[in-house]
Amino acid sequence: MKPEEHPILIVDGACGTNLQEMAIPPQAWDGREGCNEILNLTAPTVITALHRSFVEAGAMVLETNTFGAGRIVLAEYGLQDQVAAINRAAVANARQAIDGKANTYIAGSIGPGTKLPSLGHITVDELAQAYEEQIEALVQAGVDMLIIETCQDLLQVKTALVTCFATLERLQRPLPVLASITIERTGTMLVGTDIAAAAVTFEPFPLFSFGLNCATGPADMESHIRYLSQHWPGRISCVPNQGLPEVVDGKTCYSLSPAEYAREMRRFVEEYGVSVIGGCCGTTPTHTKALVEALHGVQPKKREVQA
User: Fold this and answer.
1) Is residue 91 part of a domain?
2) pLDDT (tens digit, 9 = 90+) per residue, 13-36?
3) Residue 67's beta-bridge partner residues?
4) What pLDDT shows up at residue 254?
5) Is residue 303 part of a domain?
6) How far apart are CA 69 and CA 84, in angstroms?
7) Which residue, among 237, 233, 234, 216, has the nearest Cα to 225 in the 3D structure?
8) How many domains, in total, are found in the chain?
């Protein structure tokens, strides 16, 4: 089956917060602590093990460990010339974890970077060049789809999408493209855009899905998902954190239990027609397993989109 033939796609859970709990040899960081992407090269068995834990939990989509694997972010660690190598290794690690399992897909993860064009941190041309380099590396490595996620700046997302579809056309690889923005508790993206403006902006693009991820748990996403349910013509994605983060004894913790998380997400499928669903910060393979069990036999609500 192709991804678009599945009524529901269940995406894996967090990368960064799970890596923090794993036994990673200190030398694997090569003095670049915080750069999770280098682990694709220095500790591939760790990354493959994390991916495999989500496959065993029932995830249908694995996101590659490439959220910060573009030139702009990697340059902060002196790794700007390793873009192709890191992205290729990340896809290979995910592919090894799948090990031929049917109906399991690899999504090339592309994060927002650390410089936003609307705030004058970077020019659109510089950003587009960085996106093109990473996208080409992921596509050539064999991803099944691309996800541009945790987007905080409307101009950043538009640049990513224009570059993405142009690159796919040049490479003659018409892959599904998912876009996911981050809405803060203020009710807007970081630079002030609300969900209605974002939806209007992205409607002309041939997206596989559009939705939200990160920043908050399901409760704070509900009004935005409800809006998309009523107004977005395509698939809706929802990939929240495991609730709002709390600092307990100096450590960041997330409050939602796997059962609570799964219950909330099932409701989004049944009430709002969400069909691409998974977990962001704090979500573990146990959360994914609970989600898979909760969605057994469930179909997304058929929506009537308002003009």
Assistant:
1) yes
2) 999 999 988 989 999 999 999 999
3) none
4) 81
5) no
6) 9
7) 237
8) 1
Is it the case that residue 201 has pLDDT exceeding 90?
A: yes
Residue 103 is part of which domain span?
Answer: 3-294
Structure tokens at 264: 């909330």
Residue 305 lies in a domain: no
**Tell me, what CATH number does 28's domain have?**
3.20.20.330
* Under 8 Å between Cβ of 231 and 225: no
Distance CA 186, CA 197 (A): 15
* Cβ count near 109 (within 10 Å): 27
- Distant-in-sequence contacts of 77-84, Cβ < 8 A, 24+ apart: 77/32, 77/34, 77/35, 77/38, 78/32, 79/32, 79/35, 79/37, 79/38, 82/41, 83/133, 83/134, 83/137, 84/133, 84/137
Residue matched to tokens 């993206």: 189
Reduced to 3 states (helix: H, G, I; strand: E, B; else coil), residue 194 is coil
Query: What is the per-residue pLDDT for 160?
Result: 97
One-letter amino acid at 17 equals: T
User: Could you give the CA distance from residue 19 to residue 12 in angstroms, rounded to a whole number?
Assistant: 14
Residue (of 95, 69, 65) closest to 82 by Cα position: 69
Average pLDDT over residues 211-229: 96
Query: Do the domain assignments include residue 121?
Result: yes
